[in-house]
Amino acid sequence: MPWFHEALDPDLEKALHQLSLTQGKALDIGTGPGTQAIALATLGFRVTATDLSTTAIEKAKKKTQDARLDILWMQDDILNSQLNGQFSVIVDRGCFHVLPPQRRQDYVSVVASLLEPSGYLFLKCFSTLETRESGPYRFTANEIEAIFQSHFHLISTEETQYYGTLDPMPKALFCILRKEELAIGAAV
Fold this sequence. Notes:
Blueprint: H1 10-18, E1 24-29, H2 35-43, E2 45-51, H3 54-63, E3 71-75, E4 87-92, H4 104-114, E5 115-127, E6 138-139, H5 141-148, E7 152-161, E8 171-179
């Protein structure tokens, strides 16, 4: 798989360190082979890892069947999610940028509902700097800010790359977003 990276994504690792996030409940959306979920659980997070593909979940689950990691593996469609509860951290390393434009606000609403107040969304998506003709949708920092502004404050964006199996590695945008807390008495 082009996005396969066997360790914690270096941009995510850097962000967790900068924000001093070392534990809590984490959701890995579109977990695929489960590498990010496994790395987060190894760091001490209680992880729920979801993917649209039942096959991907079963394969990822097999990797950890003998390990003592705190990971709940679930088949789930983030746009019609069956998840309950809230998470302090949500990681998306490849789901959002494949969604059709008309479903992006649905995604934002669902992710916001799953994130604790002041929780963090770590979003990695293709950058408009990527020149390959094929692949998912591409974004600028301004577009990410506009799409997510109804529920999130964009803390930072960084032009980076998708660590994986492609050579050269695709250009990516790594975004740190924090869920906005509603003011007391604000209309919902």
